[in-house]
Amino acid sequence: MTEPASRRLLRGFPAILAILLLAGCSAGPRERIVLLPDRSGQVGAIIVEHAGKSVEVKDAYTGTRLASGKLDPENLGEEAIRQRYQSTIEALPASPRRYLLHFEFASDKLTAQSRATLPTILDDLKNFPAPEVVVIGHADAVGAATVNDRLSLERAQRVRELLIGAGIPRDAIQVAGRGSREPLVVTRPGAQEARNRRVEIKLR
Amino acid sequence: MRLPILHRLALPLLLLSLQTAQAEEWAGTVKLASGETHVERDGQRLALKTGDRVYPGDRLITGKEGRIGVTLRDDTLISTSANSQLTIREFSFNPATHEGGLAVSVLRGVAAMVSGLVAKANPQAMRVSTPTTTIGIRGTEFIVEVESDD
Questions:
Q1: Does one domain contain both A79 and A173?
Q2: What range does the domain containing A147 cover?
Q3: How many CB atoms lie within 10 A of CB A47?
Q4: B-chain residues within 8 Å CB-CB of A46?
Q5: Pair (A118, A196) in one structural domain
Q6: How many domains does chain B have?
Q7: Closest approach of chain A CAs to the CA of B43, in angstroms?
Q8: Which of A96, A170, B28, B103 has its CA 20 to 30 A from that of A26?
Q9: In this predicted complex, what is the ipTM?
Q10: For chain A, first and last CA: distance in Å?
Q11: Which residue in B108, B143, B147 has the most chain A C-beta atoms within 10 A of its own C-beta, making it the best mutation to test that interface?
């Protein structure tokens, strides 16, 4: 039995479309994605997806290459990667630097040791172009979450005033309170813990 | 001419609220801008220099020998080298909860990235794409290169 010509053409349509799509893909840009070890030497992972296909990259200095619409794993090696991408890697800003300040018990007074770190922070600030200071307050697990959010913010605001007093411009400082979400020492709910009543200073 | 009291109050209040909205929306700060560096914002092309803030929607552009390094508010680090274009399509970050979202497109050239607190709190919240691929981030440092023929 023969089909009408128009019908045959229609049946062939998906195949023609697929060819057109493939041709379209091959004309696209060539792309490369490479995983690097992070600054502490640990290696994370990335998942690269293209046209419904995905490649997971788990090893440092390996990656994927997309060419002619096809995604393939690629291993150029550390030296080639470092050489090719040196100027980009060097342009990455410095990692933020963190300091911890502790308070005397039931007081908004810094401990002597914490007071002594203020000059170091001012000194380190000079290493950051267009410096920003983020002051993050924390609370222990005593009390309701909303109360701890406020308390942790108040601690951060208190430290901001100290930093302004030490010569850091107000508009370079942001404050935030993390409540009791991020304890330094994990405790049972509702427990007092002096080490968690703290303020973290971040330079970036 | 004396303006009605309400009008005299309304304008400063309006300006203040606009400033606040803009101040809260900024995505990050330029830590390095050397060579030819620009930003395309709201259809305008502006020179980009160290200390400038970048906003969601900004397209960062480098020319020959241009380099840009940016630290976003969630500590994500991004750099691009010469002849590159990268768009910060989306950025939001709650410093108290670390909830937010970040979408970056590398359109051409080379970019390096170190993921920050948004991706740490929720890996799905950071999305990086190129003209034809999407990249899921499970930590933390990587390079994206897009070669184009022109």
A1: no
A2: 97-203
A3: 17
A4: 135-138, 142
A5: yes
A6: 1
A7: 25
A8: B103
A9: 0.84
A10: 76
A11: B143
